[in-house]
Amino acid sequence: MRETDVQEPPSWDGFIMEIIYLHQQFRTKPNLKNTSASLRFEKAAVVFNVGAASSRIAAAVDRAAEGGVKEACGEFQRAAGAFRAVGQMMEGEEGTVDMSPEAAAMLERLMLAQAQECCFERALAAGTSPAACSKVARQEPDPYQDVVSGCRGGRRDGVEEGVVAGMWGEGEVGNLLANWLLQTEFKTPTESESLPYAIKAALYYEEAYAALVIPPLQNHFERSWLSHVQLKAAQFNAEACYRYAIELHDKMEIGEEIARLQFGINAVVDAKRTARGAPASLYDSVSRLEQDMNQNLEKAVNENNRIYLMRIPAAKLLSPLPSASLVRSASKSEVLDAKAETGL
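Above: the chain sequence. Below: its structure as tokens.
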């Protein structure tokens, strides 16, 4: 029997996700101007504005309300699809940096990161089985995007439960994922069930940050924008380590628990040292997570020194944590579908 219990994760009820408001943050430098007589450029600019509007709608959604998380997730996926379309339309075209394929790809990853963050909230509030998470991670069923579109904003739009389950196959996995999409209540998830969503959110944020620090996007954005994305990536990496470590403690795998906690804490400390100008609320959230991890680390080290005496593996020897994505960029037809409009 363990001598002490690790601290459980904080409640995520009413958790406020730090949203990057695209309509405020993404702008070209005022001294840079561009003129173009290209019709393709004009079309791409319109689609870009659709993506910006969708991201703003998603940020304004009350995720504490019934169906709010799913509605926000759908709008972020729509925004991701819009920016993906912009990148495709601007291939070979001359224009400003913010309309370049590189910028569009970065924005697509950023929108997917925020959509995945919605899934993380949803997973903690409702729960999914490990089998369903595995099926989503492999991204086997092509109809997923159509199902999500039909269920956006908490609406079924004529999609019946049996039809949705059939798309994902029969049995427990198909039924569980169908219920998830149709917003049926579930048991509270275990740490391992929410873990893959945290890792995937971190990966999306890392990809967006990597694009922001190299040409042509390097030095194009305000430092606070980069800091926000950088700190978000560190937060979700640490969140995954924190939750995985709790399960390791339950299994009395104390050596790896200590290594995972140290890895997560180092990620947060390094990001806080270099990320300047991010919102104070995000700093506070990350600092609370760091404090919880340090408390669990201290308990684990004390137990290991007095009871278990397990070897602590080096960080480079740790296997990658599993990831699973429940989001993808909307198709161009979905992006431009006026019937899907939710309004501000």
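The chain has two domains: 22-27+39-127+187-340, 128-186.
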